[in-house]
Amino acid sequence: MEVAPKKHDAEQLAAVALKAFGNVMGEWGVSLNEAAGLADMSDSTWKRARKPGYAGGLTKDQMLRLSAVIGIYKALKLYFSEPIASRWMTLPNSGPLFEGARPVDTLIEEGLPQFLRVRNYLDALRGGA
């Protein structure tokens, strides 16, 4: 039987995820609007959420998005050297998942399934699969 996390634990997890996500957004150099789109939040909610003490909570979908972004970030750091690791998400990409678009734009447009496809794609590149 699965036990739901306590409210305090969920708030701490959300705070850590938001901080890590915010750091990644800064390193990738995405706009406030793009970061909000990736987190599935309005611009105003993202402005509040990135500040310490945000008490708004996150949906399961938002937590999955933030988790996938952290996984994508980690895979990029392991697979590419700088500056490509930090710029890859914002560069046009001719790969099969992107068809010339920037990966960040495809995540925003296509939602959570694309987050997971990109994460799996990068893990496969890294693992040679």
Descriptive notes:
This protein has 129 residues and is mostly helical. The chain has one domain (7-50, 58-127). The protein has helices at residues 7-28, 32-39, 43-49, 60-79, 84-87, 103-110, 112-127. Helix 1 crosses helix 4, helix 4 packs parallel to helix 7 and helix 6 packs antiparallel against helix 7 (112-127). The longest helix has 22 residues, at 7-28. The termini are far apart. The mean pLDDT is 90.
Outline:
Helices cover 66% and strands 0% of the residues. The radius of gyration is 15 Å and the shape is globular.
H/E element order: HHHHHHH
Q: What's the rounded overall pLDDT mean?
A: 90
Helix count from the secondary structure assignment: 7
Number of strands: 0
Helix content: 55-70%
Task: Using the CA coordinates, give the radius of gyration.
Answer: 15 Å
Distance between the termini: 34 Å
- Note the overall shape: globular
Query: Structural class, from helix and strand content?
Result: mainly alpha
How many domain units?
A: 1
Percentage of β-strand residues: under 5%
Largest sheet: none
Low-confidence stretches: none
